[in-house]
Amino acid sequence: MIKELREKLDSKKISAVELTQQYLARIKKRNPELNAYVLVLEDYALEQAKQADVRIAKGDIQPLTGIPYALKDVFCVDGIETTACSNILKGYIPPYTGTVAKKLYNQGAVLLGKTNTDEFTMGASTENSCFGVTRNPHDITKVAGGSSGGSAAAVAADLAVFALGTDTGGSIRLPAAYCGVAGLRPTYGLVSRYGVISMASSLDTIGPITTTCADAQAVLQEITGIDPLDSTTIASTNVVKQNSKKIELNKITIGVPKEYFSVAGLNETVRQRIEEVIAQLKKQYKITVKEISLPHTQFAIPTYYVLCPCEVSSNMARYDGIKYGYRSEQVEDLFSVYAQSRAEGFGDEVKRRIMLGTYALSAGYYEAYYLKAAKVRTLIKQDFTKAFQEVDVIITPTTPNTAFAVGEKAQDPLEMYLADIYLAAVSLAGLPGLAVPAGQLKQLPIGVQLIGRQFSEDSLLQFGAIIEQLYK
After folding, report:
1. Catalytic residue, candidates 15, 72, 151, 459
2. Distance of CA 192 to the CA centre of its chain
3. Which of 317-331, 342-356, 375-389, 399-413 has the lowest mean pLDDT?
């Protein structure tokens, strides 16, 4: 889509203002039932579009100039409210713009608005937002997934050409699978996190949600790079390029982890669809398929839900009712400012994770929980390192099932956590993961997950594009 729109904009078949107006009209019509956007920046977007048209007329054209997009409501943009969909940050106006948002601004991309997310990105359904649930464009009785559910729903419903989300334990890949779009979690450190509200700093990544893998590649190449404001960013020699060397499919070996197909609760149709994809790749492209083992898979979810809450506990400490954000009026002293502001401002899931993390980090429990989980994380990473000595890419389901009904798992946190069962290990290992749509089950999308070596996004996206073609 981006390539086609680029050609239309450059040839003056459509102006950036006209294109932006079309998207704003669609948002006005569809967003009330989907709740994908929590903030629509109509005047701001039209002004950016006018500036983009001026740039295009002068020939000052970048790949994303004039392309309308959306940001998950955790990306700071100077002068625009950023809430992380939490009551504790309602009304917060950042005095600066984060690195990735600034790159897109400098490109001349047109920001349409901020999309819905689980509060502070904690959730798998976008039901934990203070703005209410985002609904699935394919069936509004179903969730869009989370935490980047607003971004995925916006792209799936054509309310944005592309959107950016964040993925800590699966928050890009899961909603992409539920909404039938492409979602990429890049290698940890490939994209700067500066100016993006943190949940778990050693796990958070930023990536694109798009209609196609080609679009994901087009966006990714514009947001990567070392950032002096984020010390975790890494220089990769494998730069993502649209005109890069094509992968030789007959030399590719796909790994199929046996543990991922023996998980309780895996829908039989989802299993059959993944097996069908593998069979088609083997038949049409002569790709070698090899069964592999990732023996520590069963520990991924418990490991993630020890380490992540520990980092949450640390990161949420800054919301104290004093520096910025919500402050309770029911206060008597300094302690009550902290206690009451957090009690009234945070939602249930955020409180749950703060308590879990604080407990695991407390004296007497640190070694039993946090330290042990950190050691298991290393074992999980070693599993992938060993597997990639034998295979080039790993293929798995993205989720055990298609999108579930709104409210179905809201009262069962453990059941909600298990939605990330195929996703958390990739996050713990710091690897890239790509969710690609592979048809539907009863009108609800099914997602295939591709896992690659660090900095293999280029070949991963090429491979994903081949799977896309199987179900067009």
Report:
1. 72
2. 14
3. 317-331
List the Cα angle 172/352/427 in 5-degree steps: 30
Q: Among 387, 458, 378, which residue's Cα sits nearest to residue 202? A: 378
Confirm whether 314 is a catalytic residue: no
Residue-averaged pLDDT of the chain: 95
Q: How many angstroms separate the Cα of 405 from the Cα of each of 154, 156, 418?
A: 19, 18, 15
| Residue 336 falls in the annotated catalytic set | no
Q: Name the catalytic one among 15, 125, 147, 456.
A: 147
- Residue among 171, 341, 427, 459 flagged as catalytic: 171
pLDDT in tens, 360-395: 999 889 999 999 999 999 999 999 999 999 999 999
Report the Cα 310 to chain-centroid distance in Å: 21
| Torsion sign (Cα): 204, 205, 208, 209 | negative
The first and second tokens of residue 103, run together, are 């790159």
Q: What is the pLDDT of residues 292-304, one digit of tens each?
A: 999 999 999 999 9
Reported pTM: 0.96
Q: Known catalytic residue: 244? A: no
Q: Are 183 and 205 in contact (CB under 8 A)?
A: no
Give the pLDDT of residue 51.
98
